[in-house]
Specification:
- By secondary structure, the protein is an all-alpha fold.
- The protein has 2 domains: 164 residues, Orthogonal Bundle (Cytochrome Bc1 Complex, Chain D, domain 2), CATH 1.10.760.10; 133 residues, Cytochrome Bc1 Complex, Chain D, domain 2 (Orthogonal Bundle), CATH 1.10.760.
- It is 35% helix and 2% strand.
- Helix 10 crosses helix 13.
- It is globular, with a radius of gyration of 21 Å.
- The structure holds heme C (2 copies).
- One heme C (HEC) binds next to helix 12.
Length: 354
């Protein structure tokens, strides 16, 4: 029995109807790109109350790479969201200070600026709101409270100057301003021009025939009902888009402990949110193994099998899995060149551990 929420059902039908006409005309041909597919924009939407400036982005980059705001002085945002990799840590569960692991897998920060909400369960509405969390999470950066973290920033003269220049005002070093700077930097972490994007813009040779086949399978199976382009994540609607996972038992629930986490229920307390998750982006998904909120599934092939079983109650053939994985590999984009920031120094003293 397949029971989708009304919205999901509606979305799947609408997208199918729109595309079926094209598929009927074109079949599995690789020579002409479908006009209906959207490419990733080159720039992320900017939040009106947090305009982007070069100085703010640079400050956000410094904070992102700086480990001095973790209790041990060893963990930065980049520890778990490694920008030299796929924006994650390739570990099942994130590891923070003292080698402590949290309950969830680190999602990528690449393209997170396009999400309608942040975290696996969507409990933060914006990047600004999200950025305040990790510093005081005991298993992440482990600071006692945000004031202690801010004092670490204030103790570094170069940061006092940079915050004053970027934000002005009486108390330029504030958690709100730090979060705005980090969010501004994150809005530059966009990976456009993947083979899929070039294909969607009309370069018919940008994807292989197998990748085009995989995209059509992905669409026909109904994966696009939730993973919608251009992000191949949930549709951007206020508050975000959530789905129950796993919806069907599908045979993988015990093997991968898929119902141990209560999902969005833990954030809202609403029974209807139990086991609901934000539909994650599939951009660069080939780089971000292992998969799902608990990182329990080690390979992309297996993640595709689990999804078809858990959401559609469909057991895919090996050939279907190969085609879909080939398509998902076409979602690996171009990574902008990032130079490491120089950090304002801690002069002539060691890091004071509070
Ligand atoms: C110890 C590892 C760790 C550190 C350090 C860390 N994060 Fe995360 N991050 C995670 C995990 C795990 C999640 C998912 C948690 C959840 O959904 O409950 C996450 C979620 C996010 C998300 C949401 C992405 C999405 O797809 O929903 C963003 C954005 C993010 N982190 C940015 C940051 C920033 C900025 C910092 C530094 C201030 C930071 N993280 C520090 C592990 C870490
Ligand atoms: C009803 C909505 C829905 C449908 C339909 C759906 N997905 Fe998902 N997908 C999700 C959600 C929600 C998650 C996050 C699950 C979790 O980890 O808690 C997810 C996660 C994934 C992941 C892992 C991403 C990561 O970073 O760990 C892959 C890969 C994936 N889906 C592929 C597919 C494929 C292929 C299909 C079609 C066979 C599909 N999905 C159909 C909602 C859906």
């Amino acid at each position: 029995m397949t029971r989708f929420t009304d919205f999901t059902r509606f979305a799947i039908d609408a997208i199918r109807n729109q595309r079926l006409a094209w598929i009927a005309l074109c079949g599995l041909c690789a020579s002409s790109a479908a006009p209906a597919w959207d490419a990733l924009p080159q720039q992320a939407p900017v939040q009106a109350d947090n305009p982007m400036t070069a100085a703010k982005i640079e400050l956000g980059k410094q904070l992102f790479f700086d480990p001095r705001f973790s209790s041990t002085g060893t963990v930065s945002c980049n520890t778990c969201h490694n920008l030299m990799l796929g924006g994650d840590d390739n570990r099942p569960l994130a590891m923070g200070v003292h080698g402590l692991t949290g309950p969830r897998n680190s999602p990528t920060v690449w393209n997170s600026a396009f999400h309608a909400s942040q975290f696996w369960d969507g409990r933060a509405a914006s990047l600004e709101e999200q950025a305040k969390g990790p510093v005081v999470a005991s298993v992440e950066m482990g600071m006692n409270n945000l004031d202690t973290a801010l004092n670490r920033v204030r103790a570094i003269a170069g940061y006092r100057t940079a915050f004053a220049e970027v934000f002005g005002g009486k108390e330029p070093v504030s958690i709100g301003n730090a979060a705005m700077a980090v969010a501004a930097f994150e809005r530059t972490l966009i990976t456009p021009n993947s083979p899929y994007d070039r294909w969607a813009r009309g370069d018919a040779g940008a994807m292989t025939a197998q990748q085009v086949r995989g995209l059509l399978q992905f669409d026909q199976l109904g994966c696009t009902g939730c993973h919608q382009e251009p992000l191949f994540g949930g549709p951007r609607k206020p508050g975000g888009h959530f789905a129950v996972f796993p919806f069907h038992d599908g045979g993988f629930v015990d093997q991968y402990r898929l119902r141990e986490d209560s999902g969005r229920f833990a954030a809202t307390g609403r029974e209807s949110d139990r086991h609901k998750y934000k539909v994650p982006t599939l951009r660069n998904v080939a780089l971000t193994a292992p998969y799902f909120h608990n990182g329990a599934v080690p390979t992309l092939e297996q993640a595709v099998r689990v999804m078809a079983a858990a959401q559609m109650n469909v057991a895919l053939t090996d050939a279907q899995v190969d085609d879909i994985v080939a398509f998902l590999q076409a979602l690996t984009g171009e990574f902008p060149a990032i130079t490491l920031p120089r950090l304002p120094p801690t002069l002539g003293s060691s890091l004071r551990v509070d």
